[in-house]
Structures are given as C-alpha cells and as structure tokens.
Amino acid sequence: MNFDRKERYDISDLIEIMHLLRAPDGCPWDKVQTHASIRQNFIEETYEAVEAIDTEDYDLLREELGDVLMQVIFHAIMEEETGRFTFDDVCNDVCHKLIVRHPHVFADTIADTPDEVLRNWDAIKMRTHQQTTYADAVDAVARSLPALMRAQKVQKRASKSGFDIENVDGAFDKILEEHDELRLADLSREDPDRLTEELGDLLFSVVNTARFLGVDAELALTRATEKFATRFRKVEQLCIERNIDMKSTPIPLIDSLWEEVK
Fold it and tell me: HSE on the CB side for 252, CA within 13 Å?
C-alpha cells in the first residue's frame, strides 16, 4: 500500500500503519515495544490531551487525541499478535458497554436528569462487574490513578454505602483533628513511618472536605501549583530587577516580595 499518495487517512489506515511498524521488517523501535515499555507514553499522551483541554487549544487537542488513539491501537495490536483480542474486539466491547449502561436511550428505563443517569450507571456497573458489596466497588478504583484523584473516588464510592461524615462541618473538624495528630508526630520525630501515616491522613481528610464542597481535589492542587509557579517567577524577577540575591536574602524580605506580587 502506497500511503504517500493518499490525501486523507482513516482509522483503517492507522491500524495498517501500526501493523507495518510492528512487522519483522518494520521500525526497529516500534516492533520491540511491550505494554510495559510504552505504559508511561500512554500516561503522558493522555495528560497532554488533558492539557490541550485545559488551555482550550483545540488544534493541539486534535493532535493529542490522535496520539492517544495511536496508543490504544498500539496496545490492541500487541494483543492481536498474541491472539487474545483485536482492536475490533475493543470497539465491540465498548459499544456493548455503552448500550447496556444507557438503558434510558437504548431500552425503556426512564432517566430524565444527569443524577438519575449516574445512579443507573453505577448500579449497572456494579452488576456487570459482579461487585456484590460496596467494598468491591471501592477496591475496583484503579490504584494507578494519581493519589488525590484515587482518594476522592474511593471516598465517593464508600459514601454510597452510607459510611460518611455527616456534613462539611464534620469534614473541617476532621482536618483539624488530623492536623493536631501530625503536629504531635512531628514533635516526637521518633517514627518516620508514623509521620508519613499522619500526613497521609491529613491529606485524605482535605480531599474528603473537597468532596463535600464539590471541588475536584486534583484540579484544585493543580491550580494551586500553577499559581505558586507564576508568583515564584514574579518574585524572582523582582529580585533580579532590584539586585537581590534570593539565596542569601532573609526570609522576611522574600515574604514581603511574595506579598507584593500577590
């Protein structure tokens, strides 16, 4: 097949190109890759697509979605080579899942609001995944998720069992409680593992508060980090403009610059 002469390509071309790259006489790099070796690539491509969404760069989003799709096909072709499944099987399964989980569209179930749709989705998901308990649903949350994201998802699933703090005031109180426990652990400095545990408990309680407030903890921390980075750059620029050596400058002066850029 002469790909150079085509003016426009489609999904079948992408699949064929990936087959050619994986062929014995194909690309020396592509043909030796495994699921594990390109695992990080998959994560990076997904985050790059997310960044395009966040920045509303739709030309970049078009490109990054292509990179994500290529990763999906790459992994599917590896499995086709083993005989376990094909890309067509992947498409079949996700179509089946969408039909089963949208009975309000493809069957006679009534769901007039997004909340009703989500309740049906969760119930069907538990049933199709043979999750008979809420603990099964909690355990099913992927451990490869970023820690804040996984914590919030675990809390959300656990709360559906009725196991939850009563209100947001209770969540705030829990932050204070875990803060005090961390301070006590820090004062003793005798057990590094305890420090890690108490810090984890504090972070977990902060995430729980975010859930009560309807805030995405992962997004909140991302924005806070970006805000810090932007302000830090401005502080450094002020230091350069005023001939201030950041490393040797007393902290109170740096703090005053920080307040200035805020």
Answer: 0
224-238 as b/e: b if 16+ CB within 10 A: eeeeeeeeeeebeeb
pLDDT in tens, 181-227: 999 887 777 788 889 999 999 999 999 999 999 999 999 999 999 99
Tell me which of 5 and 215 has the higher pLDDT: 215
Greatest Cα pair distance, the chain, in angstroms, is 72
Of the candidates 21, 35, 39, the one whose C-alpha atom is nearest the C-alpha of residue 76 is 35
Indicate the residue type of 245. D
Q: What is the DSSP letter of 35?
A: T
Residue 1 pLDDT more than 70?
no
Closest CA to 71 of 52, 51, 90: 90
Question: Token pair 């998901």 is at which residue?
Answer: 125
Tokens of 169: 């005031």
The 10 Å Cβ neighbour count of residue 34 is 9
